[in-house]
Design the sequence.
């Protein structure tokens, strides 16, 4: 032959595969077998829908041309125009057209038939289905859109009954099943009706009813479906238990025949096992349960569970002997037997449990190379001299392990690797274990898959070594041909920028077709948060070609999300602003409403814009945020811009207003450590009419203040579960600096550090501790108010504005105080003033209380908010003196303690908690009985008060 | 690269034997896809080859494609399905020595017109390799049927008696041949019953495989082309 060509010419990516497939060669005679094999091999690539070989004799010689029709592959599939149910997603799934698979007319016909069947099933008896297929010649994808005009859903028409001796008439069936004439026919309605009929029979103790409902006739004129119901109620069935006092509803809880509404042998056996387990857990270790089915009458049967409890016993001890390779704790982890006291007053034992545990221990040894290990065990009565107390003795004879003395690998050709590269578990010197071999196999196959060797296979054999107890392992690999990534085609994105998508795609054309890269790409795209569905598929998965295109199809999520929420706080908060009595706060209920609006994928960049408002008695807030992940084109950086307007009264002392703008960069240093870099500029003003402090200080303190804050935060979160931690460490350090150089009026530095550790003492019991230290160090300006005030008690530095001071106390702080009630107080009114430092040490013992969801806590909180950093004290007694006027002056710079109990109830979003704290040394202070006007005019009375010793807190999430 | 000035005789004969679809003047379609079985193609030349092999072993002249093409294609599709199913059990693969033995047996035979094997192959335009491939597939097919369907299959006494009464006796009487007692023919009847049952199972399996895979026949060309 003079020439071999293709018509149309081959794409660049296909040439290599086709070159390999051809058995015919230029310059050689044409053999029919070679031509046949060439056509078959070309077809196997999956790239051609049809191939014809044309021979042409020309002046240059004989020319062989392969005339080809390209194969098409499934792209996007949409079904539109259908009101639920069924959903468009369900219909699209029903087509069975999967992304990347071969697209044929036969498959399209099958898809349309499936859509029609599903619509008919759901009551759309006259749907009009049209379709459009758009073929993209660049990607060879066929995008299918199926348009459905359903028409009205059929309604339920006549109802007929079939079969002899039907127990209910048609009208009764309609009423029970809630199938009135004219109601829409829907499969869920029919299924619910069947369920109601079944329940009807169950109320008559008929647990084996069979109910079949079919559609018989469709009347197009009235769009009605005639139903035919065939009911077989089954015999009346009663269930009782003998040998126990368990009856009625209590007995039903053990028997799944009632929960499932079906009686069969499997469920009857399950009930038998449930009863046995129950009695065994109550100490009747030898309890056995058997069931019989007795026919009482033609239409009545009785199921009897016969319980033989046997003597009540206690499992006193489980002894394990003979183990050297595994510690006793490691073996106990695999044992279900439990001695008394470990969660059960009788312990847990049964012969079956003992057999299972012995087998579990044998498996443990066998998988670790101790094939010859023997494990035996028995239960012996009379433990510790008590006749009803058992002890279980488990004896282990380990024997010698079988050891791998050599590992021979073969077949690792294109991906040369030594044992060291792979890190095989079955290295020379290790115990011979099939579990290790399975792990090695997994590792090898994963490495090859990730390098595009999708046909790789692995085999192994073991050869006896030179000495007894030795084996030489042989690993052989058949690599197969590697597959490369061809082109990467993106589809489905309407608004998201291609550059954003391209950056998240790990796959690269020409590189190995790696499964890991496919998963990573899918994960990266989901992490953008703008797609409701991301599908990554290989085009032409069944074809045999050297490189394959990868398809990425995305569905963008709705960009707008609106959320409305509510909540409430119930704590000592405070009352109206005119009254100055009770500065420690009254128990108040504060409802809360939140509204959130989020816009995703702003500008097609996967940025998010949000607006959140919160309205409650304590706070009215509006927050605007703009978030840009992948700042600096890196997964590790995120930029957040925010604007805030806030009026707050969460400190009883004043009502304030804050307007703030902030820019924050978040850097993910490692998966567990994060750094935040932030600049915030805010203007805070305090309504002087709400200030409950010494009148002389009001003009000073009520000045609006501008604060420009540069801060950095380091967070190391090594907890196992942030919402309900059982072990780990959590550290944060925040350093902030305000200065006139970046727009701040006050100048101070602030440090806030926290260290928390969590220790699991026993399963379910956690000891948690936290220490928190905060200090503010101002500079420049005057350290005193400059007016004559009481000097005994430490006073907060006036250079730190009231709104920037530390306030402490409450459910997430020192529980000996109500919310924001800790620290220095105004000498005239007794309201909290905040401080320049804080110290808190908390310890909790968390333990299960009832079941899996209710737990308890014993806690101790110690600390306070202190007037200035130099005033932090561990002294537990509050200092007091009497001034020249005979009035008491109290010092607040001392350590307040609180002990308490709490209850936690687990929810999917974290535990709901209630804490009750008692403080033996709550602070005393001088407060004022009267109104602000009376204070100003020198009327009213001063009265010594005390923070209540008992505080209650109700909140969500753990304290720390 | 030297230009080949002649088309080989075999290629010409192949072109003459195959269906010709309208092509450019001076050109001919020498082979094409006529059926799809899963991801594999069956070509027109395979049908032609099968017709000639069929003729070799039945000592007749090759049948016309128009008359027998559909039947042969169906057989080829079934064989392809079986081979794909068989590929899942590598221990059943046929060894070269087994095929050699079959070829040696053929060499002792005489074919149409008293020809020996080589002459017969020339007459039917076949190569030894064509013959070997065919024999290999036959052996594999038999092995597949035996392993999958005949293993453990036994004819019950009742089935043997029923066959004896309803078929053997009737057939012998129709032919006017003597009737042997049941004990004498029960082994033979048992083999026949097992064979029949295996065939039923094979057909059921083929139906199942056909429903699972893409099977498409294109033996009849598109409208407007020559048959």
Sequence:
């Amino acid at each position: 032959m003079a020439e071999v060509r293709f018509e149309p010419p081959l794409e660049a990516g296909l040439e290599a595969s086709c070159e390999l497939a051809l058995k015919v060669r230029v310059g050689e005679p044409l053999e029919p077998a070679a031509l046949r094999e060439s056509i078959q091999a070309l077809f196997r690539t999956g790239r051609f829908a049809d191939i014809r070989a044309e021979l042409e004799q020309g002046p240059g010689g004989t020319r062989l041309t392969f005339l080809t029709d390209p194969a098409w592959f499934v792209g996007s599939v949409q079904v539109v125009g259908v009101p639920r149910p069924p959903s468009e997603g369900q219909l699209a799934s029903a087509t069975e057209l999967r992304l990347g698979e071969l697209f044929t007319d036969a498959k399209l016909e099958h898809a349309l038939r499936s859509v029609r069947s599903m619509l008919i099933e759901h009551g759309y008896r006259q749907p009009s289905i049209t379709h459009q297929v758009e073929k993209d010649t660049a990607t060879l994808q066929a995008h299918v859109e199926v348009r459905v005009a359903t028409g009205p859903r059929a309604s339920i028409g006549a109802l007929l009954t079939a079969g002899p001796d039907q127990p209910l008439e048609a009208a009764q069936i309609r009423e029970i099943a809630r199938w009135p004439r004219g109601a829409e026919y829907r499969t869920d309605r029919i299924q619910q009706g069947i369920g109601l009929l079944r329940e009807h029979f169950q109320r008559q103790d008929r647990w084996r009813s069979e109910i079949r409902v079919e559609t018989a006739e469709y009347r197009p004129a009235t769009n009605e479906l005639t139903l035919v119901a065939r009911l077989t109620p089954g015999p009346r069935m009663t269930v009782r238990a003998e040998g126990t006092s368990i009856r009625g509803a209590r007995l039903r809880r053990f028997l799944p025949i009632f929960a499932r509404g079906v009686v069969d042998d499997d469920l009857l056996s399950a009930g038998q096992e449930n009863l046995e387990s129950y009695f065994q857990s109550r100490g009747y270790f030898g309890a056995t349960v058997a069931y019989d089915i007795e026919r009482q009458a033609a239409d009545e049967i009785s199921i009897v569970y016969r319980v033989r409890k046997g003597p009540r016993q206690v499992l006193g001890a489980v002894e394990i002997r003979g183990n050297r390779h595994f510690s006793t704790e490691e073996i106990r982890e695999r044992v279900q037997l439990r001695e008394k006291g470990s969660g059960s007053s009788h312990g847990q034992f049964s012969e079956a449990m003992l057999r299972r545990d012995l087998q579990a221990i044998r498996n443990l040894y066998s998988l670790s190379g101790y094939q010859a290990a023997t494990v035996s065990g028995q239960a012996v009565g009379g433990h510790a001299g008590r006749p009803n107390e058992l002890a279980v003795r488990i004896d282990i004879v380990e024997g010698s392990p079988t050891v791998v003395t050599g590992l021979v690998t073969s077949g690792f050709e294109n991906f040369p690797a030594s044992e060291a590269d792979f890190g095989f578990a079955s290295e020379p010197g290790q115990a011979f274990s099939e579990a290790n071999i399975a792990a090695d196999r997994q590792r090898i196959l994963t490495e090859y898959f990730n390098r595009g060797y999708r046909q790789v296979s692995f085999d192994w054999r073991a050869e006896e070594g030179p000495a007894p107890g030795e084996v030489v392992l042989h690993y052989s690999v058949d690599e197969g041909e590697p597959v490369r990534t061809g082109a990467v085609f993106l589809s489905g994105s309407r608004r998201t920028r291609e550059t954003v998508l391209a950056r998240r795609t790990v796959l690269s054309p020409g590189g190995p077709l790696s499964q890991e890269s496919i998963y990573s790409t899918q994960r990266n795209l989901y992490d953008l948060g703008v797609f409701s569905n991301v599908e990554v598929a290989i085009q032409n998965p069944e074809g045999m070609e050297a490189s394959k295109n990868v398809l990425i199809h995305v569905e963008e999520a709705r960009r707008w999300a609106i959320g409305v929420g509510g909540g409430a706080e119930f704590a000592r908060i405070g009352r109206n602003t005119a009254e100055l009595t009770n500065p420690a706060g009254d128990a108040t209920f504060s409802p809360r409403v939140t509204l959130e609006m989020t816009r995703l994928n702003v500008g097609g960049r996967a940025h998010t814009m949000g607006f959140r408002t919160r309205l409650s008695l304590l706070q009215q807030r509006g927050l605007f945020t703009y978030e840009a992940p992948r700042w600096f084109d890196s997964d590790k950086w995120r930029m957040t811009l925010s604007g805030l307007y806030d009026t707050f009264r969460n400190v009883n002392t004043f009502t304030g207003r804050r307007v703030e703008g902030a820019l924050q960069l978040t850097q993910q240093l490692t998966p567990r450590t994060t750094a935040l870099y932030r600049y915030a500029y805010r203007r805070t003003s305090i309504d002087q009419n709400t200030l409950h402090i010494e009148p002389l200080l009001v003009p000073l303190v009520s000045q609006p203040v501008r604060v420009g804050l540069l801060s950095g935060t380091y967070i190391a979160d090594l907890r196992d579960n942030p919402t309900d931690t059982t072990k780990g460490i959590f550290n944060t350090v925040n350093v902030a600096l305000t200065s006139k150089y970046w727009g701040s009026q006050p100048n101070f530095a602030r440090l806030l550090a926290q260290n928390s550790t969590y220790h699991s003492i026993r399963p379910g019991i956690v000891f948690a501790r936290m220490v928190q230290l905060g200090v503010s160090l101002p500079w420049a300006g005057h350290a005193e108010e400059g007016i004559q005030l009481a000097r005994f008690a430490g006073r907060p530095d006036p250079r730190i504005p009231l709104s920037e001071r530390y306030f402490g106390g409450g459910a997430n702080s020192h529980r000996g105080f109500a919310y924001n009630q800790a620290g220095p107080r105004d000498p005239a009114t007794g309201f909290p003033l905040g401080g320049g430092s804080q110290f808190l040490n908390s310890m909790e013992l968390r333990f299960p209380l009832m079941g899996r969801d209710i737990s308890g806590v014993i806690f101790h909180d110690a600390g306070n908010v202190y007037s200035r950093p130099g005033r932090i004290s561990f002294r537990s007694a509050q200092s007091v003196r009497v001034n020249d006027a005979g009035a008491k002056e109290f010092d607040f710079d001392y350590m307040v303690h609180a002990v308490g109990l709490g209850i936690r109830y687990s929810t999917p979003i974290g535990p709901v908690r209630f804490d009750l704290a008692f403080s033996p040394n709550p602070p005393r202070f001088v407060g004022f009985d009267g109104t602000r006007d009376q204070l100003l005019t020198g009327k009213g009375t001063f009265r010594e008060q005390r923070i209540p010793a008992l505080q209650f807190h109700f909140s969500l999430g753990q304290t720390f | 690269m030297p230009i080949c000035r002649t088309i080989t005789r075999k290629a010409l004969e192949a072109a003459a034997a195959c269906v010709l679809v309208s092509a450019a003047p001076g050109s001919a379609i020498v082979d094409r896809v006529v059926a799809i079985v899963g991801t594999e193609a069956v070509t027109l030349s395979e049908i032609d080859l099968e017709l000639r092999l069929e003729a070799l072993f039945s000592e007749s002249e090759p049948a016309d494609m128009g008359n027998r093409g559909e039947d042969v294609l169906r057989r080829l599709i079934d064989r392809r399905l079986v081979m794909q199913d068989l590929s899942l059990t590598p221990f059943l693969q046929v060894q070269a020595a087994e095929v050699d033995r079959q070829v040696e047996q053929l060499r002792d035979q005489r074919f149409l017109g008293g020809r020996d094997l080589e002459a017969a192959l020339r007459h039917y335009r076949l190569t030894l390799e064509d013959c070997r491939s065919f024999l290999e597939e036959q052996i594999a097919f038999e092995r597949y049927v035996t392993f999958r369907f005949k293993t453990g299959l036994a004819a019950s006494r009742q089935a043997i008696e029923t066959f004896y009464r309803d078929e053997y006796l009737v057939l012998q009487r129709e032919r006017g041949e003597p009737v042997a007692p049941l004990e004498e023919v029960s082994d033979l009847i048992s083999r026949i019953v097992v064979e029949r049952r295996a065939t039923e199972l094979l057909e059921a399996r083929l139906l199942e495989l056909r429903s699972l895979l893409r099977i498409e026949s294109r033996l009849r060309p598109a409208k407007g082309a020559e048959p």
Notes: The mean pLDDT of chain B is 83. The first helix of chain B runs from residue 9 to 17.
